């Protein structure tokens, strides 16, 4: 979009970071890529000083806990061994980061799915659990369905991917 003047991205996969930078450099003048876990950016003084209350929109596609695994160091499931620790250590810290870098009434959008999963005898609900944490910091505006048939997960599909749209409280 010609309206986008700045792009800041983060990922833990080095090849994704370099390809994103190459692509964004073609279209953007102001590009900043962080090849590190998003939850670590919250503790990065330089990052927070540069980007606190800075953005009008944050859009991302978070990992689906252990349902989408990639060959890379620093995967959130490597850092957080249980679902509960992943929700608090990765997800809540990432949502706090998004809250702090968004300007007042800024929009948070992410792609999420209702894929079901089990950890031993315990079943968890990504959609509900992740959105409940997000609702501590943001107000839900809209849920838009996506009809993506090319998602690679290790369990059955309960609901398709959805775009979750929130506004900063």
SSE arrangement:
Layout: E1 6-10, H1 14-27, E2 30-34, H2 38-41, H3 45-51, E3 55-60, H4 76-79, H5 83-101, E4 102-113, E5 116-119, E6 122-125, H6 126-134, E7 138-145, E8 161-168
Parallel strand pairs: 1-2, 3-4
Antiparallel strand pairs: 4-8, 5-6, 7-8
**How many E-type strands?**
8
Q: Give me the number of helical elements.
A: 6
Global structural class: alpha/beta
N→C terminal distance: 27 Å
Largest sheet: 4 strands, mixed
Could you list the spans in which at least 5 consecutive residues all have pLDDT below 50? 152-157
Question: What portion of residues is helical?
Answer: 25-40%
Order of helices and strands: EHEHHEHHEEEHEE
| Strand-residue proportion | 25-35%
Mean pLDDT rating: 84
- Gyration radius (Cα, Å) is 16 Å
Q: Describe the global form.
A: globular
Strand order of the largest sheet: 3-4-8-7
Structure, described:
The chain is α/β, with parallel strands linked by helices and 169 residues long. It has 6 helices and 8 strands, in the order βαβααβααβββαββ. The protein has helices at residues 14-27, 38-41, 45-51, 76-79, 83-101, 126-134, and strands at residues 6-10, 30-34, 55-60, 102-113, 116-119, 122-125, 138-145, 161-168. A 4-stranded mixed sheet has the order 3-4-8-7. A two-stranded parallel ribbon has the order 1-2. A two-stranded antiparallel ribbon has the order 5-6. β5 (116-119) and β6 form a beta hairpin. α5 (83-101) packs parallel to α6. The radius of gyration is 16 Å and the shape is globular. The two termini are 27 Å apart.
